[in-house]
Q: What sequence folds into this?
């Protein structure tokens, strides 16, 4: 069930990333292992932005840090897209398949309002 129609947004970004890397001769460094390591580093930077915030603060992220948050989220998305490309994964199709699996594993009538894993429902 698609609700957002962004035709080829992932593919466009992947092409931009591939060109960016090629122009800098960085493709030689963009193997799956290195990309996973870089992705992990960016997730760590995202963690730092939320570290020590209360739940309320994290839900009302400080306005002065919004741009930093946007940059970290973008870094994560870009590395993820590059990794998917290098691993020959159509990320949009994979997300659609995963959402279908999640809907089957977490039917509304069983999980509504519950924070349980599917095998505990």
A:
């Amino acid at each position: 069930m698609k609700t957002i129609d962004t035709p080829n947004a992932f593919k466009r970004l992947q092409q931009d990333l591939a060109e960016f890397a090629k122009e800098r001769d960085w493709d030689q460094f963009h193997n799956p292992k290195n990309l996973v390591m870089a992705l992990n580093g960016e997730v760590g930077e995202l963690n730092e932005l939320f570290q020590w915030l209360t739940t309320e603060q994290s839900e009302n992220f400080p306005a002065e840090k919004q741009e930093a948050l946007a940059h970290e989220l973008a870094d994560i998305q870009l590395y993820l897209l590059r990794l998917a490309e290098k691993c020959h994964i159509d990320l949009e199709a994979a997300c659609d398949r995963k959402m279908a699996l999640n809907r089957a594993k977490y039917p509304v009538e069983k999980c509504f309002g519950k924070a349980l894993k599917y095998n505990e429902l």
